[in-house]
Design a protein that fits this description.
The chain is mainly alpha-helical. It has one domain: Serine Threonine Protein Phosphatase 5, Tetratricopeptide repeat. It has helices spanning 27-39, 43-55, 59-71, 80-92, 96-108, 117-129, 133-137. α1 (27-39) runs antiparallel to α2 and α4 crosses α5 (96-108). The radius of gyration is 15 Å and the shape is globular.
Length: 153
Amino acid sequence: MLLALMGGATAQEPKDSKSGPAAGSSTFETLILAKQHFALKQYSEAFPLFLKAAEAGNGEACTYLGAIYQNGLGGLAQDLAQAVGWYRKGGDRGNGNAMSALGAMYLSGAGGLPKDEGQALSWLRKAADAGDAGGMAADPATETPTESEPGAR
């Protein structure tokens, strides 16, 4: 279920992505550029930049990669198992949106995860503690997190 993502991500790139993303730029600059492309719905351009930032340890970039896979953006087929792996990496790196998304996926049993309210509640509490509105607004007994950023359903 969590694939090989926990021990080194092997990501499939979108069909029309370019090679050599943001060569020489810092992780922060790469993330900013990726988010600009994402906001403009240029997912194929955003993907390799998020991947570069995620590989450098950025949790927010992992979260965006999770959203790209969860929604099948940028020419990629929807892959919920990949999304789970990226959300877990983002959550492990402290990103509240990733924690919320992972909680929602445990709640529904998506991406090969078992339907597990205990795990869902644990991740949603972590998200709330990290300041994520989705984690704060969720009631695992009745609903999934409200829409916030990547990972919101």
